[in-house]
Amino acid sequence: MVDTLKTQIDERGIATVTLFRAEVHNAFNDDLIWELNTTFKKLGEDDSVRAVVLTGAGKSFSAGADLNWMKAAAGYSEQENMRDALRLSEMLASVNSCPKPTIAIVNGAAFGGGVGLVACCDIAIAVDGAKFSLSEVKLGLTPATISPYVVAAIGERAARRYFLTAERLTANEARRIGLVHETAPSLQEAFSLAHIIIKNLLEGAPQAQAEAKRLIATVANKEITETLREDTAKHIAKRRTSAEGTEGLAAFLEKRKPNWSTDV
Q1: Residue of 21, 29, 103, 92 whose CA lies nearest to 59
Q2: Which residue(s) pair with 109 in the sheet?
Q3: Which end of the chain has the lower number of beta carbons within 10 A, N or C?
């Protein structure tokens, strides 16, 4: 199988995952979907990894579905298409649920499933020239598998426009609707901005960050009931008595850095 990803891990435990199909604008095919799924699961289980940066080789972040992949899918039965769609869904879930903080650096076009990848990452930075489009309806399709993540990122109101129009968005518009958090004039400056964010991430406790991600999934869009309040109280009580909780409090009182903090 041809490598469709490149993964590098530096001495701080920062993994940089690069989509490596520049000749087709890093479009999804079976191999890339499989590698993304496998890679994010492995990085999530690796205790030495503190955060993951996701970007694309060449001029694009990801153009979405590969043309040959779509041609093959057009000849599939509904059952075969179901299996194919579930593989894509599993990959997106692996990125979205990765217990490590994830940062997307969008270096160019992000269309269709590429927008889904951005939405699955915790933090997103776009280079000023980046373009975004939920382009599926122009092909007679819908952004179905990416929809839970995109709607969570941009909200129902924005989705009701952009799912239907498939219009292209600038980096600034993507920031305005919440798809990306920051924009940068160049790819180099985007990585410099990511470095600042990573510095902040490395000051946080790894297990606390993983649990904070799960906490968001637990409380998002939920009614504030007595059960929910009790669950959140249990969560913080457990955290306070955890190894990280006791170390963090001790470090604060002793005016020193906790044992997980890394100088960068």
Answers
A1: 21
A2: 60
A3: N
Q: In what order do the strands lie in the sheet with 102-106?
A: 5-9, 14-19, 51-56, 102-106, 123-127, 182-184
Q: What is the pLDDT of residue 264?
A: 55
Phi first, then psi: what are they for 19, rounded to 5°?
Answer: -65, 130
Query: Does the active-site annotation cover 45?
Result: no
Rounded-to-integer distance, Cα 18 and Cα 182, Å: 20
Q: How far is CA 263 from CA 11, 32, 131, 193, 235, in A?
A: 11, 34, 35, 17, 29
Please determine, for residue 155, whether its predicted confidence score (pLDDT) is greater than 90: yes
Give the integer Cα–Cα distance in Å for 166 and 136.
Answer: 7
Out of 35, 136, 211, 244, the active site residue is 136
Predicted pLDDT of residue 77: 83
Q: Give the total residue count for the chain.
A: 264
**HEC assignment per residue over 2-41:** CCCEEEEECCCCEEEEEECCHHHCCCECHHHHHHHHHHHH
What is the CATH topology of the domain spanning 5-201?
A: 2-enoyl-CoA Hydratase; Chain A, domain 1 (3.90.226)
Which 8-state DSSP code applies to residue 145? T
Q: At residue 246, does pLDDT exceed 60?
A: yes
Are residues 50 and 13 in contact, defined by beta-carbon separation less than 8 angstroms?
Answer: yes
- DSSP per-residue string spanning 155-205: HHHHHHHHHHH---EEHHHHHHTTS-SEEESSHHHHHHHHHHHHHHHTTS-
Question: What mean pLDDT is predicted for residues 75-92?
Answer: 87
Task: Give the span between the Cα atoms of 44 and 40, in whole angstroms.
Answer: 6
Residue ranges of domains in the chain: 5-201, 206-253
**Intra-chain end-to-end CA distance of the chain, in Å:** 36
Tokens 């041809």 correspond to 2
